[in-house]
Amino acid sequence: MKREGEYPAEYLRYLELLSKDYPTQAATYTEIINLQAIVNLPKGTEHFMSDLHGEYEAFYHILNNCSGVIREKVEMIFSNSLSKEQRDDLLTLIYYPKEKLNLMEQKGLINDKWARTTLHHLLRLAKLLSSKYTRSKVRKAMPESFRFVIDELLHAQPDEDKNRHVYHSKIIDTILETGSAREFVYALTNLVKRLAVDHLHIIGDIYDRGAHADKIMDELMRHHSLDIQWGNHDVLWMGAAAGDLACIINVLRNNVRYHNLEILENGYGISLRSLALFALETYTAEDGLDPMVKAINVILCKLEGQTIMRHPEYGMEDRLLFKKFDFDGGTVTLPSGTYELTTSDFPTVDRRNPYELSEGERELMEEIRREFLGSERLQRHIRFLYSHGSVYRTYNGNLLFHGGIPLNEDGTFAEVELEGGKYRGRGLYR
């Protein structure tokens, strides 16, 4: 063993830092042994999901069944001992334990024999799923109220001596005698689902289209281990929550377009009453178009136009739509031809300065901005996106990102001008 003076100074600094966590040789040896053992375990299962778009029911079902991982294990263990109907019943119980137990209770199908058999099935499944993790990690995944009991039962062995067998059998007996079988089933089904997937990757677009992105966010905030790569729709909501008017009006347009105002009004408590009143007072419905849709689209064109003119490096001048309008003739000229406008109702557009908001529009957008900034639940969800998300991430050798990366024809990274600088590849996402 080397003496202190034989180590380089830089090496000693590392040793001093390590000594804070591992003050003795025994502690160091223990950690080395532990880490060497862990790296030889199989990797935990990773679950990848993307483009959730507010579809909570579909998301929740996929989250519950772990994209088929649990079914695969059930088939592996019980294909020779349970019928297909019995295996499907077991899977339904794991995915939706409360609903399944309530239904069985109504039909009078729950008794001690069923409970004992089901507990044994769930324990066998949990034991298989736990085999790729350390005992410490499995114990931490267990519900605290049943941790001791589950830990004992998971490590029961088929060839254990009579005393241990009696001990473990008595645990099951006591669960049934105390009437806690239902709670124990809940605990085991939750453990099975947690062990089935070690880490969850959400690769963008939680928001828009569907009605319940807020419920998805609540579920993600309860998840034990995950990361998020922001999608364009997520970034839009992040900008809206920060008070950017162009992002806010885009969020409103998307939700009105998909007839989905529930997330704004019920999910986040953002009132759209002022928008509805402004639209009805300002626009006509005689052309068959929804006044609210017209109000949003006009404000959208104005705010997007302001952004484009502030950033000529975006190269998006073709999106300055009002410059292509012939308001008097009622037409719009695009590269593909000249087309008749579906409405001539543009009471807030100043022909000399078409991208300037009217006084009424400014007041409206400031009020809606306050609604977004003041929504505590929205702000909490967006903070979670920031703390658990990024534009891209590398995980277990995989590059995770949503959407695409600008490339040249030959496959090399394309250079993009942004905020006065030029970026490409990884530099564009830092």
Can you describe this structure?
This protein is α/β, with parallel strands linked by helices and 430 residues long. Among the domains are: 96-198, no CATH class; 271-374, no CATH class; 391-428, no CATH class. The protein has 19 helices and 11 strands. The protein has helices spanning 9-21, 25-38, 56-65, 69-78, 84-95, 97-106, 112-129, 135-141, 147-154, 162-177, 181-196, 213-222, 232-241, 245-257, 262-267, 273-282, 291-310, 359-374, 376-388, and strands at 46-49, 199-202, 226-229, 325-326, 331-334, 337-340, 389-390, 392-395, 398-401, 416-418, 421-423. The strands form 4 sheets. The chain has a 4-stranded parallel sheet with strand order 1-2-3-7. The chain has a 3-stranded antiparallel sheet with strand order 4-5-6, with no helix packed on it. A hairpin with a 2-residue loop joins strand 5 (331-334) and strand 6 (337-340). The longest helix is centred in the last third of the chain and has 20 residues, at 291-310. It is globular. GO terms for molecular function: fructose 1,6-bisphosphate 1-phosphatase activity.
Provide keyphrases for this structure:
single chain; 430 residues; alpha/beta; four-stranded parallel sheet; globular
Please state roughly what percent of the residues sit in beta strands, choosing from under 5%, 5-15%, 15-25%, 25-35%, 35-45% or over 45%: 5-15%
- Unreliable stretches (pLDDT < 50, length at least 5) are none
Describe the global form. globular
Order of helices and strands: HHEHHHHHHHHHEHEHHHHHEEEHHEEEEE
In DSSP terms (H or I, runs of 4 or more residues), the helix count works out at 19
InterPro entries: FBPtase_class3, Metallo-depent_PP-like
Protein name: Firmicute fructose-1,6-bisphosphatase
Organism: Anaeroglobus geminatus F0357
GO molecular function, one term: fructose 1,6-bisphosphate 1-phosphatase activity
